[in-house]
Amino acid sequence: MKTLRVAATLPALLLSFSALAEEQTRQTGDFQGISVGGGLKARVTVGPTSVRLSGDPQALEHVQTEVEDGTLVVRSKRGPWKGSSRITLTISSPQMTRVEATGGAAVEAEATATPTFTIESSGGSTVSVSGLDSARVEVDASGGTNVTLKGRADLLAAEASGGCQVYGEALSLKALEAEASGGSEVRANPTERVTAEASGGSTVQVDSQPAQRHVSTSGGSKVRFPRP
């Protein structure tokens, strides 16, 4: 009998949880960049301007969305909290040229063509950007974050510190300027030039054979190239 009662109760509980979910559309101005914090997760696509949130109604009350200097800033009023995992952000904009993630946030974004695309990631966050098409891609990663890049760029300028990883193997690239410190790792495959500085047990991994190489290492760090 107890088994039957539990089985009968489960559908009702599932319906109850579904009923609790709420979807909101936030009205904002136009933006070309996004900044996400507080452990929130966001999916960013290229399209008409739209900001949608779904999740527990009480959790949604703690999420702020506002445009500051052309950047949509999404954060929780109380910083990272357990309720952030129950929220889904779906965002779109005709232009996307900058992504920032802080405080354990996770952002998956599509880029638009722009002379310079900027990525900042800190505090255990995760950023993945696809569709890059820029003369210059700038990455500043700190505090145990992961950044993944896909697309095309003439130059990748990457700075990674404090146990970060920057994965640029899927970025078609002419030149790399990398600084890695504090146990960080930068991976990329430039075809023409590498300028790399690694310190504090860090690694810069290059799986291509660029003709121009300017390398500096210290503190057990490495800049690796494939054998000819």
Automatic annotation (TrEMBL):
Signal peptide boundaries:
1-21
Q: Where does the source fall among the domains of life?
A: Bacteria
All copies of domain Putative auto-transporter adhesin head GIN, residue ranges: 30-210
Its name, as the record gives it, is Putative auto-transporter adhesin, head GIN domain
Keyword Signal appears in the UniProt entry? yes
The segments labelled Disordered in the record are 181-228
Compositional bias (Polar residues) spans?
Answer: 200-220
Q: Does the keyword ATP-binding apply?
A: no
| Record keywords | Signal
